[in-house]
Amino acid sequence: MIQDARILQDEFIPSEVGHRDEEMDALTHALAPVTRDEPAETALLFGPSGAGKTCLSRFAVDRLRESVIDLTHQYVNCWQDYTRFRALYRLLEAIGPTYDVHRQSTPTDELLERLESYDGPPFVVILDEVDQLEDESVLYDLYRIPRITMVLIANREPELFARLDERLVSRLHGATRIRFEKYAIDELVSILEDRVRWGLDEGAIDRDGLARIADAAAGDARVAITVLRNAARRAERDGTATITSTMVKEAIPAGRTAVQRKHVDQLTPHQRVLYEIVDDHGSIAPGDLYEAYAARVDDPKTDRTVRNHLSKLAHYNLVVKEGDGRGRTYRLQD
């Protein structure tokens, strides 16, 4: 049944991105100066998880490479490369050898100096989940490097800007802002139809089955694609020619769990401690949560940073915030 398993991965970048024409036009316009060998203004992409921000940004850069002979580019997942050193190291990998860089002994400022001396082709940098960076000053440093153009991806603009230095906020005032909304059910069905056509046997699943997956995904393409993949694997394992409604029904909770588990696996050490404390207590008030957190880590972050972490966990449906004020509590998502 599965003809090309790559198509069923949510990280797959298709040859065409549907239902995001306005967003694509806005990002293409923002990056247009690069085609003239000029640095472009920073582009800011905001929206919920699974709304196509990452896919569209990588697709746009791929298209840009078709019209620009000399272009350097790099994608950085700030969930994984959340420290200043890791982020700079990932960018250096795009412009030259890094065999002489050692995590334990090479000063971070040396990495920045190498980037500052870069004089090659225009360098487009995608920083995904940019609000995960522990040290946001790296954004100010990158902004000041003439050949670098940044595409910054985050969930919510207020939470990102609340953490940034006033100097950077001022400079980003004229940045292009592109906002994404959750996919509608018919849009998700269309996205899934493309994945079926490219990756599965013809007739592997009917439209009703895809509509059921889309409805369960609640606007999140990542969840929808994961559910489809799980259902297809079940059908292939059972040796059936089609994905049945029962397979779809069973794949839905498994797909949601798989996406949630992936998010948990990506948590930074401090976010993971917060997640584990909420898991241990079932339901816990913010003050008690911070006290338990401070007791578990050697270098506790500020209360404000912890609130930002909890907001991120809630945005990815890992925790639920209930109540307001003194009655507020946190619990794990059911």
How would you explain this protein's 3D organization?
With 334 residues, this protein is of the alpha/beta class. The protein folds into 3 domains: 20-179, P-loop containing nucleotide triphosphate hydrolases (Rossmann fold); 185-262, Orthogonal Bundle (Helicase, Ruva Protein, domain 3); 267-332, Arc Repressor Mutant, subunit A. It is built from 14 helices and 8 strands. Helix 8 packs across helix 10 (221-238). The longest helix has 22 residues, at 245-266. InterPro entries: AAA+_ATPase (IPR003593), AAA_16 (IPR041664), Cdc6_lid (IPR055237), ORC1/CDC6 (IPR050311), Orc1/Cdc6_arc (IPR014277), P-loop_NTPase (IPR027417). This is Orc1/cdc6 family replication initiation protein. Keywords: ATP-binding, DNA replication, Nucleotide-binding. It comes from Halococcus saccharolyticus DSM 5350.
Q: What topology does this entry show?
A:
Elements lengths: L20 H11 L11 E4 L6 H15 L4 E6 L6 H9 L15 H9 L6 E6 L8 H7 L4 E7 L2 H5 L4 H6 L4 E4 L5 H15 L7 H11 L3 H18 L6 H22 L2 H13 L1 E2 L1 H11 L6 H13 L3 E4 L6 E4 L2
Parallel strand pairs: 1-4, 1-5, 2-3, 3-4
Antiparallel strand pairs: 6-8, 7-8
Helix pairs in contact: 1-2, 3-4, 8-9, 8-10, 9-10, 9-11, 10-11, 12-13, 12-14
